[in-house]
Design a protein that fits this description.
By secondary structure, the chain is of the alpha/beta class. The protein is about 35% helix and about 15% strand. It has two domains: about 45-100, DNA polymerase, domain 1, CATH 1.10.150.530; about 105-380, Aldolase class I (TIM Barrel), CATH 3.20.20. The structure holds S-adenosyl-L-homocysteine and iron/sulfur cluster. S-adenosyl-L-homocysteine binds near residues 156, 158, 306 and 339.
Amino acid sequence: MTAAAARAIAPEAALTADERTRILAKSALFDPPTPQLADGRRDLVGLSRDELVAEMAAINEAPFRARQLWHWIYHQGATDFAAMSTIARPTQAKLAERFVVGRPEAAVVQTSTDDTRKFLFRFRDGQEAETVYIPDPVADRGAVCLSSQVGCTLSCRFCHTGTQRLTRNLGAAEIVGQFMAARDSYGEWPSPKGETPRLLSTVVLMGMGEPLYNYANVAKAMTIVMDNEGIGLSRRRITLSTSGVVPMMDRAGAELGVNLAVSLHAVRDDLRNELVPLNRKYPIAELIAACRRYPGASNARRITFEYVMLKGVNDSVAEARELVRLIAGIPAKVNLIPFNPWPGSVYETSTAAAIARFAAVVMDAGFSSPVRTPRGRDILAACGQLRTEAGRIGA
Ligand code: SAH
Ligand code: SF4
């Protein structure tokens, strides 16, 4: 069916489909380089299961070889073919001639006084992105905050990443690689099975970049992370945060079914246009409608609305009331994030009293409204503080 014919049948659906095609095409312009070393060896990390089977077929290895590799790479965390003891030595050697099991290089690792750990990862072309591990203060578990892009095309006024132009998307290998390298740092291999406690227990796509502007790579990476024969993280333990790329929200919900977090930050279009410029394209009403139809949202799986608390800008009681009116009926919680300053930022954090007043209104309306404790501020690892200097492509 042509796009025009589709539009004649269902104008709104076709428009969204057109828009999605346009977003995916634009995103492809920022694709990462092929995950290959200068000597021609290819990285096996980041390949889908089917692609891994195809790579094996190309060197006359049966599909079960791909399955063995999957287990060694994602369950055991092996990076050396020689350690893969279920694979015969000559085959190990054959694999090592053609492939590697890569990791991004941890160029800088900093640990905060509150134990938050920030990694600056450097990829093969010299580009860099930050990843943060935020341990739970009481239990042996924690969240890994992954980056999806080097920089960001959106320029939210309160966000440090937003001051760095988009250099390129991260590939699936680089996104999964951040998680695996963080795991290396805590020695958490082999992957704990099922609901066994894990230190790196949740993934939040809340680092640098807009994950829904790099949907193909993010989706591939999350499919790998969720695979039961490998890392095996349940979709309930993955949260994707978006500034509101409405046409891609439906797709993410249907295909990945991960938890959704939406960076709302304002309840009026004039203010949101200023704070989150993407609002000019997808205004609040459209964003909220997309949340209402997000698949799988229920009381057990609520949508998180993120709301950065900016002193005198968006933190009044009237705005809290408008917020609960906007989201009425959505299974949701509201995460209040005290603004984290960064060098050159123009905003101030709301006072504790203003945050408490705002939270009370939201709570009285029946929504849980936790205030996010800033973590890792001393090492610029808190929400919205991440930024790297763009490296030279091909360096
Ligand atoms: N691009 C995505 C995900 C990354 S940002 C998004 O915008 O949702 C993760 C969260 O941190 C978002 O809610 C973002 O709005 C918020 N954030 C950005 N800068 C911040 C800052 N300086 N202080 C507190 N939160 C911030
Ligand atoms: Fe990009 Fe999210 Fe920062 Fe906005 S808040 S500039 S979308 S990373």
